[in-house]
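User: Can you help me understand a structure? I only have the sequence.
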Amino acid sequence: MTSKKKIVLAYSGGLDTSIILKWLQENYNAEVICYTANIGQEIDKKKIIKNAKRLGVKNIIIEDLKDIFVKDYIFPMLRGHAIYEGIYLLGTSIARPLIAKRQIAIAKKFKAHAVSHGSTGKGNDQVRFELGYHYFGPKIEIIAPWRIWKLNSRSDLIRYAKKNKIQIPQDKKGAPPFSIDDNLYHTSTEGKVLENPKNAAPEFIFQRTVSPEKAPNKTSFVTIGFKNGDPVTVNGKKLSPGKLLQKLNIVAGKNGIGRVDLVENRFIGIKSRGVYETPGGTLLMSAHRAIESVTLDKQTMHKKDVIMPKYAELIYNGYWYSKARFKLQKIVDLKRNKVNGSVKLKLYKGNVIIVSRLTKSSAYSVKKVSFEENKTFNKSNIEKFINYHKKKLRS
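Assistant: Let's start by predicting it. Here is the structure, written out as tokens:
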């Protein structure tokens, strides 16, 4: 007697993944194991367990990965100053590789023959998940329901849910809902009125930032301390990676910081419009660049700036585990041990202003730049320097 096959499903407990769960049970005659990665999103453990058990699931796994997510994924990306197409801080992109890695680990533990995800056929996430699956479990089958089932519309999904007595949230009975993805780093909102780029984003869609107009009229200050290129303290207090980002999210969100409205070029070849909120990440990006400015040499900083667009694109496209990204990460981290000190920021109505940089590094010399002291800088070499570059103009 052969044992029943097993499928590990990336499960949120919501309508779409509950429909996928039932569909997998009907079409694959397999035991479905539900896996949820807690990376700081709004999560209701009781709801997840209740909805999965209602559909007959025995194994429901919920992992708290917040610190791992921040330390091993967000911080390395932050050190690379990764920004896609000049504006997107890659909040959704960076979350998928970790989920995929853990999902494959669960599949191996339970000897599952397949993994499944709920990403749609028009989005980037299907690529990100499946490249991660392939890297860690190339022999494990991948089931992508949105690309193969016959449920072609929101109405089809609703009818299927009703037929199978799957609970339907009130806001999902009418027009297609906003597509929302959130984690500790960011929240993205797409769909509905946002699909037409001529429409302004309604204020009610923002979840973790107040509007700059309604932010306090008084400035706030925050000091972020860095060690070996990573943030370790807020206002002098050492915090775990997850709690550090959580604290910065709160203070930045209260001051209307971290909102972007963008039209991005998806990896699969279409454009999409979304509104993203990355409050704490916006502070970290500003502070990290500021601390590097007084701790790293010009050549290292400029090399990082040159590779950044490619580095960001690799992350966006799902190539976190690629040789190309690993190679660029080595360049990013070449002198991270020199990036130590603290940066004080002033926050005011959506603005992030550098107040001060404090470091023991000798990369920045007050004596060399001072207008009052000239002994440490040989000005006689400047004329030779300029003449050399005059010749290069025509070479």
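Now, to help you interpret it: The CA atoms of residues 234 and 244 lie 7 Å apart. The chain has two domains: 6-66+91-176, 181-358. Let me know which part you'd like to focus on.
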